[in-house]
Known about the structure:
One of its GO terms (molecular function) is carboxylic ester hydrolase activity. By secondary structure, this protein is an alpha/beta fold. It folds into four domains: 2-66, no CATH class; 82-247, no CATH class; 269-433 and 504-599, 3-Layer(aba) Sandwich (Rossmann fold); 437-501, no CATH class. Helices cover 41% and strands 18% of the residues. It has 21 helices and 19 strands.
Amino acid sequence: AMVESALAAFYSRSQRSPEEMLGILLTHHDDAFMEWLIEQSPEGSATRHLLGGLTGWNRSLYKRVLTLSRVYLEEDKQSAYDRIYHMSHGELFGLVDRLRVALSSALGHPLHPASLIFDTPPRDKDKLESIELIYPNARGQRHYPLHQLSRIVSGVQHDFIRNPRSLDASKPCPKPKTSSWERSLLPDQDNNLASLHPLLSLLVGVILLTSLAGCRTGASPAGECKPATAVAAHDASGEIEDATFVAKTAAKDATTESSGAAPTRYEEIKREAITFESRGATLKGTLTLPVAASSERFPAVVILHDFGPIGQDGLRAASMGVELPVEVPVYELLAEELARSGVAVLRYDKRTCVKNAAPRCDYPRGHLESARDDLAGALVDDARAALKVARDHARVDPRRVSLLGHGQGATIALALRREGGPESVILLAPSVQPIDALILHQTMTSLALTRVRREEEGDTAVGDLLDKQIATLEADLIEQREAFEKVRGGKVAPSEQIFGMPASTWSGFFSLHDKALEDLGAPHPKGGTLAVFGGLDLSLPPDEPRKMEGILGERTAKSRVEILDDVTHDMVFVSRDTNEAPSLDERLPDLIAGFLRAAK
């Protein structure tokens, strides 16, 4: 607000033309622009004083709060739109509204006019990153500046913009790589402002992408988001004349099925208690099934747990950096929602869920102690036994049983995939790091978070306690590095205790995960691989989704990566509305069910 106020005051005093004002904005980077703005503010004014106290981080915010529509007088804003987009303000927003109507039809549900907002026009001559499309959806407002374009399009096929000179639907849509695709739409940096109209074609595409990213399966009458192709029409001179969206009805793409039939929704589900034997232990579980009048068999998923003593409900009260006010039964909620989508789900108490280890855990200690020397192998055997139980059930299609691995469970799912066991694998918060590197990352992250909290706490008793925690974490980090190097180098006896477990146990997990990573990129002979990451996951390095995309290769219906915003490592959605209780992210069950239908 201060930046806008100072600019508006300067504009009024200087009587600069819109072109001159735009030139000033385009020729200054953040710091230089802010210094220039401070100089233009009256000596001793509150504006100059407050602007001078902004930090470097605050200064970057000017791009978000400054829009020429607020700086220019109304009549000058009209000319700005005409110059940059080759259409008036009214014509541009009339086009946007036509896009909204067409997109509403394509998605199967109405979009409010406020759902598509422009933040205009460009103010950065080097990256042209200042045009933003704002797409407010059910989970809060999303901003998509152009410099994030490569991240946005990485998960979607590039065929949503047709040849700008032709509307011949019989011609195949081009699918260049992201970098060349971006360059083909962005104007040359040396061009004058009048050449920026191709950006509107780009924004048409971003509208589609962000809308599809924000929609929920179940929003349309068919129960799933319908894909759409943006089509831009041009006049003889190449100017944008109109644009619309055309719903796809033919070939499959990376996110949808070719069948137009709506998936069946089962309102009634049932739960069956299950027990099975594995390595001398009796494991307890629950099979959640749709209730159907016919004797049809359903596809099934077996849930494999994350690290730690976790029961079949998957109760989670916290993830790294995120404390939840209530426990969320992640696996139970996921099983129920998948069952309503026609997928049977088997979940069971993990072998390590022994008495006093965690809530609702009541296995005897022998379940853990008998397998301590080869815990990784025992967990794989348990998952193999659970997979057989699911296949043998009378209401399950034995050819369509998949594994859903969460965290550590993702490694076990990949180990069984290597054997040709499951039809497909769904990996929730998987790591492409070696186990020891991942643990070191988590310790360093805990240390960083504790240090931040210590700075905020000040000179208090809590601060003293945090000092002790920091010292402990620093010592742990050194000890972990040394211990893991010994285990990797075979310089420790198998029975030697390393952080409460024999060295052989650590070696087993290291080996299991390393082999899983080696095979991760191999084609799956049966179904496919879906990897899902949470945007609030601090347990994994932030570049894990990008690395996973590189391993899986080209995104297809049977192999892809998804990132869910505002979701923790445990797939819990944390609302920005403090009145909304945390729960399983509602997008996840639909995402998984759609993937299983496409991968069959």
